[in-house]
Amino acid sequence: AAVKRASLAGELERAVDIAQSLGAAAGTLGIDVFGRLAGVWFSAGPLLRLGRFEEVLAQPQAFDFVPWAKAAWAFAQASAGRLEEAKGLARRVMAERNVGPEEDWTGGDTLIFLMQTAVTCGDAEMAEVLSRRLAGVEEWYCRGATVARLLGQAALLLGDPKGARAHFATALEVAQRVGDRPETAAVRFHLARVLF
Known about the structure:
Layout: H1 2-8, H2 12-25, H3 32-49, H4 53-57, H5 69-79, H6 83-96, H7 108-121, H8 124-134, E1 141-142, E2 145-146, H9 147-157, H10 161-178, H11 181-195
Antiparallel strand pairs: 1-2
Helix pairs in contact: 1-2, 2-3, 5-6, 5-7, 6-7, 7-8, 7-9, 8-9, 9-10, 9-11, 10-11
């Protein structure tokens, strides 16, 4: 909870320190393996926002243990500028799980990481499929992102600035309601791109 509170407040370095402290103390806490993994998972989001991509990418084994792992790994690669590798992995995840515009059993975490990968990579085809899949859940907040922001970014990719503005307005409301300062800043950045 302390990592999330620090992240929401925009204290990203502090969030990383707390998460890494958990990983370092895992053995003494009696949660050796899980604690080390949790330290990596909890620090990944703040590290990516800080641009410290290589620290996340140095821990691939930590992303083998959760259902959303491959999609999260694709997003980490996209964030680091490894766009072709990220797109390839995201497309494989979508194929393996049969992710399409209709309802399936794919979890929200996976869908969010896939959409983050699509918009980061500028993959309009993937963004279009995922936009239809996420339609109706614009007010979701998951994994430090508002679905509405991602839908707005996808709308821009698909040539719909009016739709993007509407999504960004929703995203701003959600981010402010959640109290996530970095997400609020990201939404304002994307909204400014549409306005100017």
